[in-house]
Amino acid sequence: MTRLVGVRYPVYAEADIIIDCGDETVEQGVQRVCESLSEHTHPQKVHVALAQHSYDVLIGSDLISRAGAQIAPLLRQKRVVIITDDTVAALHLPRLLASFAETGIETEVISVIGGEESKSLSCYGEVMTRLLSLGIERGTTIVALGGGVIGDLAGFVAATALRGIPFVQIPTTLLAQVDSSVGGKTGINSPSGKNLIGAFHQPIIVLADNSALATLPRRQRVAGYAEIVKSGLIADPDLFAWCEDNGSDVLSGDPAALAEAVRRACVFKAAVVTADEKEQAKQNGRALLNLGHTFGHAIEAELGYDGRILHGEAVSIGLHLAMALSVKLGHAPEEDLARLDSHLRSLEMPTSFDWFKESFSAQTLLDHMTRDKKMQNGRISFVLLHGIGKAFTSRDVPMESVRNLLINEGCQP
Ligand SMILES: NC(=O)c1ccc[n+]([C@@H]2O[C@H](COP(=O)([O-])OP(=O)(O)OC[C@H]3O[C@@H](n4cnc5c(N)ncnc54)[C@H](O)[C@@H]3O)[C@@H](O)[C@H]2O)c1
Ligand SMILES: O=C(O)C(=O)C[C@@H](O)[C@H](O)[C@H](O)COP(=O)(O)O
Ligand SMILES: [Zn+2]
């Protein structure tokens, strides 16, 4: 059993899902909450109870068509600016606009090119300039309609426009529904590294419309699935076991499996974020959500965020590498590495550098890792595993072990 230090989850009486673990461990709390979920009908509400900015995550079908009614009572001014990307705008914007029109909400739209390249300083500058030219006020609300790129970019725009205006997350990818739309991490990439420019800025509500996932390509489902497996590996072994039983249905786009995956992952993420909103816990807090990311972000930075690799694909190999490093350092049993690899490979998820058809240098990846924002006094904080469902943070990983692992895994020295 893994216990997150000092975790106590506040009660939220109106939510369908009450995270009030008292002295329960995270595993017990998440298991109890997931059991109660099956008793409820859509939409389901997961409450993220934070000291200053509590909010609901609604999960259900066709929420985009009902967004106006959900959002209107939360608005300070009946005016929103929707930030989206061109692909999502073509597929899902019309029903969102119709819903806002029905509720008398004034709307403007800023659309960017889809994909990681839009999480850049130049795109941020263009969006901000356009936003300010609209004559917004502090009561104007930003609505992020799209995947994690749009959520991170629009959230950062909202965090910095007029020193902070409200924003709503309407995630349309699996990755955004299971991970990025919840928790308030916003930001953009820099040539020096992934997400190095950003702010914590919590949304006022998250509408995870499972129907939007119907248009998502399989490659994007794979990317989102990696973050679900990550959640199970960190502290939810039941979720990992659920993935072993249901992962192929999730990846084939089965609506019920997708909806269940989103519910389970949101409950998990809400619990972790509630316990350590700004990643300040010295050990085993929100930083655990970075499992696989020290490797993954280095791979993404090395390829320059140009679309050759998706964040979730990099995370998938990062999960394998984090478990392999944990085994190498004597923290985790070989069987758990075999179990993880067998699951990921059975679904054709990336577990090896060969998958990327690119050659990587261990030294270059190590250089990227040293620019990670979790560096402290020159030491990298790694998220390691004692086994499946048992993650922990460590600053004691010898860089030579990481280098040797990368070379064993097929990198050039
Ligand atoms: N803030 C956080 O906590 C957090 C967590 C995890 C990941 N992230 C970030 O999220 C980003 C990745 O997000 P992503 O995987 O959603 O990528 P993305 O936002 O680039 O979306 C992937 C692609 O899918 C398209 N798309 C979106 N919704 C669609 C739909 N319903 N149907 C068809 N196509 C659709 C988009 O146009 C885009 O081309 C990365 O930048 C990562 O760093 C942030
Ligand atoms: O919400 C978090 O905390 C996470 O770490 C979730 C990650 O999946 C996500 O990719 C996040 O953006 C990475 O955090 P970062 O602080 O390393 O940028
Ligand atoms: Zn991630």
TrEMBL record:
<keyword id="KW-0479">Metal-binding</keyword>
<comment type="similarity">
    <text>Belongs to the sugar phosphate cyclases superfamily. Dehydroquinate synthase family.</text>
</comment>
<dbReference type="InterPro" id="IPR030960">
    <property type="entry name" value="DHQS/DOIS_N"/>
</dbReference>
<feature type="binding site">
    <location>
        <position position="185"/>
    </location>
    <ligand>
        <name>NAD(+)</name>
    </ligand>
</feature>
<feature type="binding site">
    <location>
        <begin position="148"/>
        <end position="152"/>
    </location>
    <ligand>
        <name>NAD(+)</name>
    </ligand>
</feature>
<feature type="binding site">
    <location>
        <position position="311"/>
    </location>
    <ligand>
        <name>Zn(2+)</name>
    </ligand>
</feature>
<keyword id="KW-0862">Zinc</keyword>
<keyword id="KW-0456">Lyase</keyword>
<feature type="binding site">
    <location>
        <position position="293"/>
    </location>
    <ligand>
        <name>Zn(2+)</name>
    </ligand>
</feature>
<dbReference type="InterPro" id="IPR050071">
    <property type="entry name" value="Dehydroquinate_synthase"/>
</dbReference>
<comment type="function">
    <text>Catalyzes the conversion of 3-deoxy-D-arabino-heptulosonate 7-phosphate (DAHP) to dehydroquinate (DHQ).</text>
</comment>
<keyword id="KW-0963">Cytoplasm</keyword>
<dbReference type="Pfam" id="PF24621">
    <property type="entry name" value="DHQS_C"/>
</dbReference>
<protein>
    <recommendedName>
        <fullName>3-dehydroquinate synthase</fullName>
        <ecNumber>4.2.3.4</ecNumber>
    </recommendedName>
</protein>
<keyword id="KW-0028">Amino-acid biosynthesis</keyword>
<keyword id="KW-0170">Cobalt</keyword>
<keyword id="KW-0547">Nucleotide-binding</keyword>
<feature type="domain" description="3-dehydroquinate synthase C-terminal">
    <location>
        <begin position="224"/>
        <end position="375"/>
    </location>
</feature>
<dbReference type="InterPro" id="IPR030963">
    <property type="entry name" value="DHQ_synth_fam"/>
</dbReference>
<dbReference type="InterPro" id="IPR056179">
    <property type="entry name" value="DHQS_C"/>
</dbReference>
<feature type="binding site">
    <location>
        <begin position="172"/>
        <end position="173"/>
    </location>
    <ligand>
        <name>NAD(+)</name>
    </ligand>
</feature>
<comment type="pathway">
    <text>Metabolic intermediate biosynthesis; chorismate biosynthesis; chorismate from D-erythrose 4-phosphate and phosphoenolpyruvate: step 2/7.</text>
</comment>
<dbReference type="InterPro" id="IPR016037">
    <property type="entry name" value="DHQ_synth_AroB"/>
</dbReference>
<dbReference type="Pfam" id="PF01761">
    <property type="entry name" value="DHQ_synthase"/>
</dbReference>
<feature type="binding site">
    <location>
        <position position="227"/>
    </location>
    <ligand>
        <name>Zn(2+)</name>
    </ligand>
</feature>
<feature type="domain" description="3-dehydroquinate synthase N-terminal">
    <location>
        <begin position="111"/>
        <end position="220"/>
    </location>
</feature>
<keyword id="KW-0520">NAD</keyword>
<feature type="binding site">
    <location>
        <position position="194"/>
    </location>
    <ligand>
        <name>NAD(+)</name>
    </ligand>
</feature>
<keyword id="KW-0057">Aromatic amino acid biosynthesis</keyword>
